[in-house]
Amino acid sequence: MTHKSDDYGEPRTPMPPTCYQRAMGLRTNPSQRQRRIGFELRKCRERAGLHAEEAGRHVDLGGPHLRHIEGGRTAIPEAKMLKLLDLYGCTRETYVDGLLAMHRATGKGWWHEFRHVVADRARDLAELESMSRAIRAFEPLHIPGLLQTPEYIGALMHPASPAPAASTPFRRFRTRRQELLTSPSAPSYHVVIHEAALHMRYVEEPILRRQLTHLIEVTRLPNIRVQIVPFRSGPLPAVGNPFTLFGSTDPELHTVLLEHDSRSDFLSETSDQARYSAMFEQLVGLALPALSPAAERQYPSQRDSLSLLHHLLYIL
Question: Is the pTM higher than 0.85?
Fold first, then answer.
């Protein structure tokens, strides 16, 4: 399943609801979490071989109403959702608990205050990050957003002004997202960065130097692991865009995020999860050993991600 939305910078203006949508109280712009709940319910129903009309009757809902639920356009009471999952045979505890967590979420976390200044997909991303147990990511050309310094963020957004005002909404939004990594419920975060991202002169040299130093410092946190794929690693897996894998309480509820210039695709199919998970493991194998500034350096000449970063800082 693919979910598409707008650019991270400007918020999307929702299409006005039709008369039918207003009468039904349907959502005109469901969030990624709301669409995912519907997707899972439809997947379970189809796996059970039931039509929407049959399943709907089981919980006193019409077929069209159930289809709106499956499209994320309207909510379903928790008791009816549990009854449907039982009917479909989807009763694995970790799976049901994961769906219940999605269902009980209000969508009004800290990101809700940015609803008028950042795009839907940015807030969908923040909510997904907040509900994840583990995050794995690959970045070919940029420092990952969760590890960017405020001045690096600002320079990327305002190339002509290397030190924009701290009140820039998206800059504040990105900084708030980063608090996830130091929160009491912080997920594990494993990122693989291609060496090209460390050479790209998107920003002025002093900003880049401080950004690379920050990469070293953040890996002192026990939940963060950073690896660098060097230019000499050989052929990479067939991947041209950054991607992120979000781990849930149950493997069937994992999510893959593909980022493009003008949209983000949230992939829910297990086949996509398996494909990108395998791709990530290939990248891990091609990358240098992880940054470990706290570890004792018994072999100063060894080739690892930390050595490469120190070399880049030296030649800057």
Answer: yes
